[in-house]
Amino acid sequence: MSGRQKNNSVTDESYWDGVWSPAQSSLAPLNNSDFYYGKSGLFARLIQDRLGSIEGNSILELGGGGENKRLLSMSKWMGADVTALDFSDEGLKVVKELFEINQCSGNFINGDICNWESDQQYDAVVHWGVLEHFIDPKPMLEKSFSALKDNGTLLFSMPNMEAIGAHLWKSWCPDNWSKHVLHSRELIEQTLQDIGFSRIKSFHYGVPCLKAAQWEVASLAQHPINALQKVCSASARLMPIFHKYGNKHISMERGFIALK
Q1: Of 113, 188, 104, 170, which is closest to residue 146 (Cα–Cα)?
Q2: Which residues have C-beta within 8 Å of that of residue 241, sequence separation ≥ 6?
Q3: CATH number at residue 44
Q4: Total structural domains in the chain?
Q5: pLDDT, position 8
Q6: Do 160 and 94 touch, CB atoms closer than 8 A?
Q7: Which of 82, 133, 217, 239 matches a 20 to 30 Å C-alpha distance to 139?
């Protein structure tokens, strides 16, 4: 990793290697009826709503290593030609094994996002929960722009650090919180516009956010919050409206979509 990216990122390879190293034991075939990642699951609906059909499209995911069921879903159920870029050896090892278990094909590239040069351009570039690990979002968004074909689409999301539940995240998970940077909607939209993107839109989605990370600070109040978060997550099966029509104050994720 270059000095530029080290200065701009609040995480590094060793951090992500540690995150993904336990993942192999949990890898399994992706079920067609999976509530979130299945053929008609909530993630498939999100992609359909934002990108339409991606069958035969080339999709690049930045930071695509790890137990990446989103990328797998786009390949297995949606028929996209997918590529994952990541600088974590462990993360790439995990995503490759996940694809092998599911008998799916994909392209896997080891490289750091801001210094990587693409030898092709893609119909869409996506990333999920990556941009918030960069102090300055512009280099990564510039790389997204350069990797896209003309009229290609950028779609990405971040944890909703403005949700009411984020206050608990900050208080009870201080180390995890410190690995994330809150970028305002205005900053992201202006940066996208300055780079050359158009038709920029922001949105929120996901279940209500009460617990965003494993607690690092002990408290008796965490037990009912844990239970309530499970109820909120389970409720999405009955009320998927949370994913389709999010809210800044309660949704787990916030996203952006822009056209090159």
Answers
A1: 113
A2: none
A3: 3.40.50.150
A4: 1
A5: 72
A6: no
A7: 82
